[in-house]
Design a protein that fits this description.
By secondary structure, this protein is α/β, with parallel strands linked by helices. It is 48% helix and 15% strand. The longest helix is centred in the last third of the chain and has 23 residues, at 394-416. The structure holds glutamic acid.
C-alpha cells in the first residue's frame, strides 16, 4: 500500500473534507506495515474499497418552528461498511454537520464496532439542525420530520441508528414514535438508546462514560498506576461526559473541571453527585452553557469564561465533547501542568499533532475508537435484548460491558505492544479493527 498516494487521490477527489481525510490518514499510517505483509489484501484492493462508504443518503428535512415559520435542514445517513454486520452508528444533530464530518465518523465507527467483539458494521447520520436555543416542541417536530425520510433507509437487520452529539434519549424517543407510526409495527430493534420501559437497555445512557473509565482503569493498571485519588479534567456536559464523571467519581477519582463552549467550571474539591445529576438538565435545556453549572452551584465551583478544561491542572484529561477539541498547544499546556494520561472519549477528540506530542512526551494516550466503544457495544447488547424480547438487569449489562472493555484493551495490547514493551494504543486499536474488517471483506469476495 502506498499511503501517501491513496491520501493524495482522496484529497483530489474530496477536496476540503478535512476530518474525513484526517481519520483515513491516521488509520492507514497505523496499518501500513501489517497490510504490506498480506498481499491478498492488496490484490483485493481492500484499502481502496474500505475508505469509501457503501452508500450515502441525503434528504431535505422541513419542519415548522414555534413562530410558525418553515425551516429546512439537510439530513444524511452514511452506510459505511457492512462486512461484519448490519450498519450501526449514531445520529448527530449539530450546525456544523456535513458529509466530511459524517464520513469521518462512519469510517471510525467501522473499526470501533469491529473492536467491540459484536457483529456490527459502521454507519453515521445526522443533520445540520442546530439544537441550541430550540424548544422541546421544536426538537420534537424536527425529529419527526427527520424520521419521515430516514425510516426508509433503516431496519433491525439493515441499519440501526442511535444517539450522538445533540441526539440523546429525548430525540431517540421522538424519532421512534414517528418510526412506529410509519412502519406500523413495534419494531424496537430499529433504533438503540431507547427508554428503559420501551425496549431500551438498562445502562445504555451511562455506557459510553462507564466503558471509557473501565478502559482507562485497564490502561493505568497496565502502566502500574491506579485511578483512585487522581484528578480528572472533562470537556463537555452531555451524555458521555455525564457517564464519565459518574464512573470516575465512583472509582475514587476527583473531577476538577468540566467545560463547555463558553468556558470551564473549575471544581477544586471535585464534582458532587448533585452536580453530575444537573448535567442532563443542562443538556436538554439546549442553552449549551457550562456557566449554568456555576449559576446553580456557586459555592462549589468557579467559572472561567473562554478557557478550556485543558487549562486546569489534572492527572488525567478526558476529552468528551467534539472532534479536534484538544490541540497540540493544549497538549503542551496539560503536560506542563503535570498531566500524564489522556484518554480520548470523544470521536477523534485530539488533533493529530496533539496525539504525536503526547506519545513522544511520555503521556499515556488511547484513541476514541477504543476508549468510547462501550457506548455502541451496549447498543449491541440492546439489539440482542430486543431480538430475543428480553431485558437484562443492570448488573448483567454492566458485567458484559466490563468484559467487552477488557477485551478491547487486550486487543490493543496484542496489536500495539512495541519492542520496548510499551503499548501504542493508536496502532493497537487501528490494527485490531482493521484486521477484522479486512478479513471479512476478503472472505466475502469482490462486491
Ligand atoms: N454515537 C455513538 C458512537 O459514536 C454510539 C453509536 C451507537 O450506539 O450506535 O459510538
Amino acid at each position: 500500500m502506498n499511503t501517501n498516494q491513496i491520501i493524495e487521490n482522496l484529497k483530489a477527489k474530496y477536496p476540503g473534507e478535512n476530518e474525513y481525510l484526517q481519520a483515513v490518514q491516521e488509520v492507514l499510517e497505523s496499518v501500513e506495515d501489517v497490510y504490506n505483509q498480506h498481499p491478498e489484501f492488496e490484490k483485493a484492493r481492500i484499502v481502496e474499497r474500505m475508505v469509501e462508504p457503501d452508500r450515502i443518503f441525503t434528504f431535505r428535512v422541513t419542519w415548522i418552528d414555534d413562530k410558525g415559520q418553515v425551516q429546512t435542514n439537510t439530513g444524511y445517513r452514511i452506510q459505511f461498511n457492512s462486512a461484519i454486520g448490519p450498519y450501526k452508528g449514531g445520529i448527530r444533530f449539530h450546525r456544523a454537520v456535513n458529509p466530511s464530518m459524517l464520513k469521518f465518523l462512519g469510517f471510525e465507527q467501522t473499526f470501533k464496532n469491529a473492536l467491540t467483539t459484536l457483529p456490527m458494521g459502521g454507519a453515521k447520520g445526522g443533520s445540520d439542525f442546530d439544537p441550541v436555543g430550540k424548544s422541546d416542541d421544536e426538537i420534537m417536530r424536527f425529529c419527526q420530520a427527520f424520521m419521515l425520510e430516514l425510516w426508509q433507509c433503516i431496519g433491525p437487520d439493515q441499519d440501526i441508528p442511535a444517539g450522538d452529539v445533540g441526539c440523546g434519549g429525548r430525540e431517540i424517543g421522538y424519532m421512534y414514535g414517528m418510526y412506529k407510526k410509519l412502519a406500523r409495527e413495534y419494531n424496537t430493534g430499529v433504533l438503540t438508546g431507547k427508554g428503559a420501559t420501551w425496549g431500551g437497555s438498562i445502562l445504555r445512557p451511562e455506557a459510553t462514560g462507564f466503558g471509557a473509565l473501565y478502559f482507562t482503569q485497564n490502561l493505568l493498571h497496565k502502566a502500574g498506576k491506579d485511578i483512585k485519588g487522581c484528578t480528572v479534567a472533562v470537556s463537555g456536559f452531555g451524555n458521555v461526559a455525564w457517564g464519565a464523571c459518574l464512573k470516575a467519581t465512583q472509582l475514587g477519582a476527583k473531577v476538577v473541571a468540566v467545560s463547555g463552549p463558553d468556558g470551564v467550571c473549575v471544581i477544586p474539591d471535585g464534582i458532587t453527585k448533585e452536580m453530575i445529576d444537573y448535567m442532563p438538565v443542562m443538556r436538554t435545556s439546549n442553552r449549551n452553557k457550562v456557566e449554568d453549572m456555576y449559576v446553580k452551584f456557586p459555592d462549589k465551583c468557579s467559572f472561567v469564561p473562554g478557557k478550556k478544561a485543558w487549562s486546569v491542572k489534572c492527572d488525567i484529561a478526558l476529552p468528551c465533547a467534539f472532534q479536534n477539541e484538544l490541540s497540540a498547544e493544549d497538549a503542551k499546556e496539560l503536560k506542563s501542568n503535570g498531566t500524564w494520561c489522556c484518554c480520548e472519549v470523544s470521536n477523534m477528540g485530539c488533533q493529530s499533532d496533539a496525539i504525536k506530542y503526547f506519545q513522544s512526551n511520555g503521556v499515556l494516550f488511547a484513541p476514541g475508537k477504543a476508549v468510547n466503544a462501550g457506548g455502541v457495544a451496549t447498543s449491541g447488547l440492546e439489539m440482542t435484548q430486543n431480538a430475543s424480547h428480553i431485558s437484562w438487569s443492570g448488573k448483567e449489562v454492566d458485567e458484559k460491558l466490563h468484559f467487552i472493555m477488557d477485551s478491547i484493551h487486550d486487543s490493543c495490547v496484542k496489536y500495539g505492544t512495541q519492542p520496548d514493551g510499551t503499548v501504542d494504543y493508536v496502532k493497537g486499536a487501528n490494527i485490531a479493527g482493521f484486521m477484522k474488517v479486512a478479513t471479512a471483506m476478503l472472505e466475502q469476495g469482490i462486491i
